[in-house]
Amino acid sequence: GSALGSTLGQKLNLSEDRIRNLVACGAAAGISATFNAPIAGFIFAMEVILGDFGVRNFSSVAIAAVTADVIGRIAFGNMPAFQVPEYQLHSLWEYPLYVGLGVLAAGIAVFYVRAVYQTEAIFERSQRIPATLQPALGGLLLGLLAWVYTRLPAFSGDPIPHIYGVGYETISLALLGGLSLGLAMILMLLKIAGTSLTLGSGGSGGIFAPSLFIGATLGAGVGRWLGMIIPGVIAPAGAYALVGMGAVFAAAAHAPITAVLILFELTDDYRIILPLILAAGVATVLSHHWLGGESIYTLKLTRRGIRLRFGRDIDIMESVLVEEVMSREAHPLPPKFPAKALPELFLRYNSHAFPITDAEHHLLGMVSLSDYRRAVQSFPSLDDLRVIDIGTREPSVAYPDENLRSVLRRMAPRDLSRMPVVNRDDARRLVGVIRRNDIIRAYERASAGRAQRTFQGMPKLPGSEVAEFFVLEQSPIHGKRLAEIRLPRECAVVGIVRNGELIVPHGDTDLLAGDQVMILLGKCRPDELQRFFNPSAKDAEAASGADEENDGRS
């Protein structure tokens, strides 16, 4: 459902907010129709995908969930997805056991999340295997895994491995208490491996159903084990499978509310809800800590430099990685380079600092203009000094895969103009240098790109093309009010980006150097507008002066 919503939004060239809304509607509809769980589908979309319960998306997501549920019930019947016996708490002494199950669920969820993304990282680093063939390789490995499963002596009578497909039959078996301890544990581990191979290699698959499968088998195994050591005191193993199913999903997705509601709707029974709330809460808190606040849905975005808060990108600088803007020409110096020769290099490369590396390109330190000035003041002569003697031995470093915001946080307090970039796997190997100016330019480009995507969300009607132009200090329109500029009547200024913020244009809006001006072209050609932004004497004369016809148009 989410993929369908995303594809539809991109095909219609909708804005980011509308695409996000369609993704949420698709997810809500998919869960609602598949599991006969409209409330859980709605809460999942609002809690996990959108990250807020604002009025703006409330109605559309609710309508999608209800509509899908009605159609699903007409097609598949008015029955819960799983038939579960009437489980309930047998004793108050079971509450500590459910807390323990929550701790185990958190550990398994963290292992599951990391296995998926570590497998993906392995495939991404595989240079010898073309990206188009990686899903096929993942499918081959999954097939071998299933083949090995059917050849194990204990499971030779099972011709169809349980780890294939969504696994509803296995989940139902676990909820009915039909899995042994050994089978439950093996199926849990194989499901993690199979899901990791499928998703990590680029294959098509989801996160939701495998989480339920893993949780159900974990709970079934724990219930079987407890039944062996304290028989007759606890609820059947199926009750622990039910709670484990919700706890693992809550821990992996950081969605305890969804976990509780979906289990209630899946089973149509609320008597086991208190143990579920307890286990899901414990599992969510622990996994949130162990995963650094990230869930299975946000960890990949974070590794790419995009951090979400309440479902939204919180900082444009967090969407840009160091490797995208860093310079690989760092001009490193050997440690024995004479310190007295530094001024010549400062002038030649117009740089205030240089990294110091050995013959293997390992970072030994940084030497800056400030270091040179301190050395001049501290030593009577620089003849016998080398750059390693006056430089900083353990400088702050950046990594190619971290975002610019985290780098800027370390540069600003120290007033650093540049920072060496080292390999994440080999922290001593220099791969480049990132400068403060690089970050500023990246911010400007990212701001412009975001504004452009906003305008690209407009319907593609004839004449609705939007062009962007930059105001320079030499531009004829620099410092003028918008009402003073005689643009052709067929076009109009629809937005101005200044310092990363979108300004709604008015007649008294001043145009300043660095502004990015968005112009709705209408019947105009972009080259007709260049004269307002590219300086020339003739153009300056044409663009200057007030035009009474345009005073009220802007």
- Find the count of extended strands (DSSP E, 2+ residues): 10
Q: Specify the CATH class of the largest domain.
A: Mainly Alpha
Number of helices: 21
Q: Percent range for helical residues?
A: 40-55%
Average pLDDT works out at: 78
The biggest beta sheet is recorded as: 4 strands, antiparallel
Q: Outline, from the CA principal axes?
A: globular
Q: Could you say what the CATH architecture of the largest domain is?
A: Orthogonal Bundle
The CATH topology label of the largest domain is: Clc chloride channel
User: How are strands sequenced across the largest beta sheet?
Assistant: 7-10-8-9
What percent of residues are in strands? 5-15%
Taken together, the total number of domains comes to 4
Query: How far apart are the termini?
Result: 43 Å
pLDDT < 50 stretches: 304-314, 536-554
CATH superfamily of the largest domain: Clc chloride channel
Over the alpha carbons, how many angstroms does the gyration radius reach?
30 Å
